Here is the input.
Amino acid sequence: MNILKSKEKMSIIGQVLILAVSIILLFLAFIPIFLMINLSLKSNIQIYGNFWTLPSPIHWDNYRIAVSMLIPNMINSTVLVPISTFFTVLLASMSGYVFARLKFPAKNFLYMLILSLMMIPSILMLTPLYKLMQDLGLYNTWWALLFPWVSGGQIFGIILCRTFISNHPA
Here is the structure.
């Protein structure tokens, strides 16, 4: 009987300890979120003056500036993503069909070449692609975004479409 009571006490103590540690960790996890919101509502003078205090007059200008900087990027994404998705799917499905159904010389070699392109990290292409877009006069245009998106999606798209088409009867 004594052993059961001591186990129950240990169980209660353990639960209280777990709860206390969880509350402390939760508090520590919310400190960065609190700081982010608190500092976003302060002016620069308030941030440098009193870092930890609440903003005395709330400064909404930071959000106005952030949203005004994000709107052109959101418009670009809204316009360009459907276009690039359409062309990626169109070209990848046609290429996947060719690799799945048609017979032509060096078909397997070309497919292995496409597979090997997946081994190249896309970050390695960043500098040459930047230089290419500058040389072609496409820097700072929508074409400079569309070409890499469509061409970059082809590798995986061709593999996916070829596999899908080859699993269906002709």
